Amino acid sequence: MNNIVKKEKYAEIVKTYASDILSSERFKIQKNFVQHGKFSVYEHEVLVALTCLSICDKFDIDVDRKSLVRGALLHDYFLYDWHDNDPSHRLHGFTHADTALRNACNDFELNDIEKDMIYCHMFPLNIFRVPKYNESLILCVADKISAFKETIINIFLKVSKYTI
Ligand SMILES: [Fe+2]
Ligand SMILES: [Fe+2]
Predict the structure, then answer these.
(1) pLDDT, tens digit, for every residue of 63-81?
(2) How far are the Cα atoms of 52, 54, 136 from residue 60, in angstroms, in the given order?
């Protein structure tokens, strides 16, 4: 299976498990917030969800795919532009997981795996938030890979955006 076919397969899985999230107006607001370089928070979360599925396939890891997709899509659901000079965003790296979790719980029904994924996704920066589940650990790795692609790799090679 080539990469494009794989991405399409993963995109279908994301749509199947998270159509309510993807169609939510609040979730779509994130298209207006920059995450890294030319990637919006929305595009970043989609890339992270696809990367999570790809990691599971590659290493044959047993996970709850629905929770994996939903937690990945909501992991940065903090709903503000962290590049603003607002003093409340100064500790963004340490605080946005809590904000994202609070917003996600307000807007969607979350299970324990999804909550842990969002809460722990900044590990090891947030050193005391050690992921409890496979899904949370995979998200930590996928988030870092995606951030690296969106920043460093994207300077030299154009990283394709996959908009769902
Ligand atoms: Fe984050
Ligand atoms: Fe992220």
Answers:
(1) 999 999 999 999 999 999 8
(2) 12, 10, 16
CATH of the domain at 15: 1.10.3210.10
Query: Is residue 115 one of the residues assigned to a domain?
Result: yes
Q: How far is the CA of 3 from the centre of ligand 2 (A)?
A: 22
d(CA 68, CA 117): 8
pTM for the model? 0.93
pLDDT digits (tens, 9 = 90+) for 92-118: 989 999 999 999 999 999 999 999 999
Amino acid at 3: N
Show the domain range for 108: 3-156
Percent of the chain having pLDDT more than 70? 99
| CA 73 – ligand 2 centroid, Å | 9
Between the CA of 96 and the centroid of ligand 1 the distance, in Å, is: 7
Ligand (nearest to CA of 151): 2
User: What distance in angstroms lies between residue 143's CA and the mean position of ligand 2's atoms?
Assistant: 5
Using only C-alpha atoms, the chain has a radius of gyration, in whole angstroms, of 15
Ligand nearest to the CA of 122: 1
